[in-house]
Specification:
Blueprint (H helix, E strand, L loop, with lengths): L1 H25 L8 H11 L22 H6 L4 H4 L2 E2 L2 E2 L5 H12 L10 H11 L8 H4 L4 H4 L1 H6 L17 H8 L2 H4 L8 H15 L15 H5 L39 H12 L8
Antiparallel strand pairs: 1-2
Amino acid sequence: NNNNNAGGSISTDMEVEAFVTALEETCSEENLKSINGIYKCHNKCQSHLCCFVSDDDQFKQDCSNQRPAACNVYEPCKRLVNPIHGNEPVKTLDSADIEKIVFDACYFGADPLKITGEMVKNCHGVCAQRLCCFSDYLLQSSCRATVGDDECELYSLCEQLVTDDGVEVNNAVELKENEFDVGHICTSKVNEDTDLYDACKGLCIENRACCFDKPSYSCYEMEKEWCDEYKACEKTNLKFSGGLAGGGSISNSNGGTSGESNTSSTTPAEIEKAVFDACYFDNDESR
């Protein structure tokens, strides 16, 4: 029996070790730089986040004294509550310092030209430790209950890295589309900035694709007012296929222009005969 108990103990120890190893990997600093990584770590840690509530947190539900062994096993979860910025735990930084760090990395005001790939990268680097504050969509709850609203508010600019659907914004084009409407993005400067051009065109295609389709498929004539809301898209190479507002014309795929009459050289009788020859089979299934 003693041997059996010893074997069971070894087996349990190995299971715990395997669990801790998996948890360490799931909640690694690298994984916590993305919403998806936060989501996976949170799923494993949510029942033990109370182990890592510090004395100055507004939600004082510290369970570390009641569950010391379990809290020790879940030590990797501490990164969700008190991540590292540089070489220091976030909670050791002064509030004003945190706000300045976030502002310097993430603020672009009302100017989409300030949004560059480098800016988005730097903002992600600063915000990764607190994206969980804005992860309600994926997590069904954020980490605000653990870290507190006051600290999450220090990272308020980081919310721009998460869409309303909880999708993480990963590049300059996505951030511009997420934060600005077509009038802000599709300006006269699109030809001076490749990222701005791509953001403008991407926004136009995503929201009004049929307006810019080839004439035979275009919805422009039927939805002219709706399409004209995105007239600024014509600052790229997109053109309204059904014709321009104000009576202008654009090239059709057949070389003609909108508004011109295209007289067919084929008579109705010839069309009818061609259709009959191609489609009629009477009762002869072999045809």
